[in-house]
Amino acid sequence: MNSEVFITDGHWRKSLAAVRALGEKGIKVTVGESTRLATAAFSRYCHQAVVYPSPLLRPAEFLEFLHNKLSRRSYQMLLPMEDETMDLISKHHSEFSSLTYVPIVSFDKLDFARRKDKVLQLAEKEGIPIPKTWYIENISQLNELKDTLPYPVVIKPKTSSGAVGITYPENYVELIEQYMSVHKHFPYPMIQELIPREGTGYGASFLLDEKGQVKASFVHKRLREYPVTGGASTLRESARYDDIRDMALSLLKKLDWFGVAMVEFKLDPRDGVPKLMEINPRFWGSLHLSVEAGVNFPYLIYRMSRNEKFKPVEDYEVGKQCRWMLPGDILHFIKNPRRASLMPEYFHFWNKNTSYDILSLKDPLPVLGRILTPLTFIYDRDMKQRLKKRKL
What we know:
Helix content is 36%, strand content 20%. The protein is of the alpha/beta class. The strands form 3 sheets. A 7-stranded mixed β-sheet has the order 12-11-8-9-10-13-14, sandwiched between helices. A 4-stranded parallel β-sheet has the order 3-2-1-4, covered by helices on one side.
């Protein structure tokens, strides 16, 4: 029986985590990306690396390439890792599912889960706590709200990833200026109350089968992030938080979810209540932590693709830490005005309890791939577009 897996978006550290998680189980992995300098392609566990047309700039050609690749070579499973590839593949789900196992939901469900406004409204209806949110449908509403908003507030696009498009106006003048700036790229963003930054962020990650049954779950808390004001975690720790797990699961079941997803919460220090932030309806950047703590999501999906029966994996090592050093945690240190409070623990690089997203003595070459990645922003049109999207 075939044991090879195709993973897209080899540039990202979560793709590297998936390659390693499968490769260490003896599974051959093909890594695809629109540039040769893809971090995951440098891994010792990458059996084959392929360069495909940009899903962002040449979507039709990407789909044709992928279809031909899967038709000519037998793959057990296809794992799309990023938004652009997931969108395209989900829109052609039946076509690709006839060629291999594709553990993602339909495009309609994917699109709904990405809509922060729809998810928040659904959560509130289900009794899941959310930050106070103002849904803007007309610019004139800003004038009506100017004297009632609890500044500083957060302007947040209805659909975006990471910290893209998020701003923190501290008064009405800044609100108008920043809102109109974000509105140009992300029409009618929401306005939210700002949960105090000392509130801890949590992520509840799941793997659900075709019947919506839990096959794996994992909770982690954020210890550091970049940008410092809110972004991807640069240091995180495995944790237990049953209330967050249960709320996240109830939301995913309401969406009739299948495959992986991470539901993000932030603990409000004012009342001690975790508030829903958003759903990340794909593999998450901190995937390596769950694998290190004992929940190997990529391998469990692989087992599902073979129709293997296994008990839900929900026991894992609590207190395990994982660090995104290059360049995330370095940038956090540089940009953090309170960096002195991080020392001397920040420089304890060889803590046995801490693993790294990219750095690995067993698999060292992806570091070279990550160092070379900035070169792609110089000559690669697709990578320039990605960088531009993240700077909007």
